[in-house]
Each structure stands twice: as structure tokens, then as C-alpha cells.
Q: What sequence folds into this?
């Protein structure tokens, strides 16, 4: 007696009417392989019972056209087109609160999987990633060029004037925020952004070796050029300082 075999893997690619895929299959496969090939993938995805607990407890699902269960199902069934479509908008709705991971009876982490999809979207230079990250370029420049921390007193009209007129409406209770943050080095931008020159050079080296700067170039080439100029200047300063020590 023979039994028909089925697979959870989606085999069909393309529009069922025109039979023309909007994105080449090779590109769809490359995107999925980048997600699946990450060391974290097998830890974050163990299967799916399709119970919907993740979506029921997801804050973002209450306000956006977003479902953690849909993301897990797309990856679990290897729905290449669905994965690509979700990376154009839906994955950016996640707040990364990981309530889904805490509640999933199967041990999945939709939030973790979305993080992999976001990183892949950046790697492939998707327009969705550029649009989402563009407003944060000023913050990225501040952090990468001057240090690696945020502080309460950066929330002021003078700190980020290029954010537009709405920043002038910000009136953060800075004294209260400073008291709420226990670490003294986080109290002001002066101390939070005061990073040793040697440490800055080491951080730049790490970003280069780990591909962070390559990803930045893919998303924002202008910001990449500015940061490289700052990085080259700091390296020259550090070399000069080393020469002075030898003398």
C-alpha cells in the first residue's frame, strides 16, 4: 500500500497567474541561505505548532499588520517569496521585546528570527532597511565617532537640531533621568562620549573585521565615508601618540 509523501517546504515560486516570479529564484534562495546559515537560526527555530500564542501576546501585532506566527511559518516552510515580502516592511514592526520567545511552547524565538532577517536585509541593501535606518544616521554618527553610549542630556534641541522642528518640543526631565540611571558615566554626553583614543581605534578595528562597516556602507554610503574619515584621523592621532611615547 503506497502513501503520498508531503513536505512542509514550499516548492512553487512565482505568480500563479503570470508564472513570472517578481524576484529571481536565485536571489530568493541566497537571501534565505544567509538567514538559515546563521549560527543562531537553529537555536531560534525549532518548529511551529501554529498555536498563535506568540501573536496573541505580541504588542506590535495589536497596532500593525504584523504577526510573529506568520514570520515563523514563512521560515519553517521555507516560503522564499513570503520571506522576501516580509523583509520589505513587516519585520521592521517588531519591538524586539521577546515576549514571543518567552511564551512559545515550542521554544521558538520569532524576535530572534526577525533580528536575523533584519541583518540579512541590511546585508543585501534592501530599500526597507535604508528607509528604517536613515533617521538614525545622526545617532549612529555620534555613537560611532565619539563613543558607544547614550546619555539623558542628549535629548535636547541643540543636540540634534537636524531632526527637525519637533525636537524643539522635547522637554526631558534630565535631572530625574540622571537619578534613575545609576552609572555616573552615563549622566552627561561629556562623560558618556569621552572614550580613550586607543579604545576608539580598537573599536574601529573590530567594526572593520566583523563587517559592521561593510554593512554600513551598503545602507548609507555618505555616513560610511564620514566615519571612515573620522576613523583615519583618529588612527593618525594614535600613531602620533605612540611615536611620542617612543621619544
A:
Amino acid at each position: 500500500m503506497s502513501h503520498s509523501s508531503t513536505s512542509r517546504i514550499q516548492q512553487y515560486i512565482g505568480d500563479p497567474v503570470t508564472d513570472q516570479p517578481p524576484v529571481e529564484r536565485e536571489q530568493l534562495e541566497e537571501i534565505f541561505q544567509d538567514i538559515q546559515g546563521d549560527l543562531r537560526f537553529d537555536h531560534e527555530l525549532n518548529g511551529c505548532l501554529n498555536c498563535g500564542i506568540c501573536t496573541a501576546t505580541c504588542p506590535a501585532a495589536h497596532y500593525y499588520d504584523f504577526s510573529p506566527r506568520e514570520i515563523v511559518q514563512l521560515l519553517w516552510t521555507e516560503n522564499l517569496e513570503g520571506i522576501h515580502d516580509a523583509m520589505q516592511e513587516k519585520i521592521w514592526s517588531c519591538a524586539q521585546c521577546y515576549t514571543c520567545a518567552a511564551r512559545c511552547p515550542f521554544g521558538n524565538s520569532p524576535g530572534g528570527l526577525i533580528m536575523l532577517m533584519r541583518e540579512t536585509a541590511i546585508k543585501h541593501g534592501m530599500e526597507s532597511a535604508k528607509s528604517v535606518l536613515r533617521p538614525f544616521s545622526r545617532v549612529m554618527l555620534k555613537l560611532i565617532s565619539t563613543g558607544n553610549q547614550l546619555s539623558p542630556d542628549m535629548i535636547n534641541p541643540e543636540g540634534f537640531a537636524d531632526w527637525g522642528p519637533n525636537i524643539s518640543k522635547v522637554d526631558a526631565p534630565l535631572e530625574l533621568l540622571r537619578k534613575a540611571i545609576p552609572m555616573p558615566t552615563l549622566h552627561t554626553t561629556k562623560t558618556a562620549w569621552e572614550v580613550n583614543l586607543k579604545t576608539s581605534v580598537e573599536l574601529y578595528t573590530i567594526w572593520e573585521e566583523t563587517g559592521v562597516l561593510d554593512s554600513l556602507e551598503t545602507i548609507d554610503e555618505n555616513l560610511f565615508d564620514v566615519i571612515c574619515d573620522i576613523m583615519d584621523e583618529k588612527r593618525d592621532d594614535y600613531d602620533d601618540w605612540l611615536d611620542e611615547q617612543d621619544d
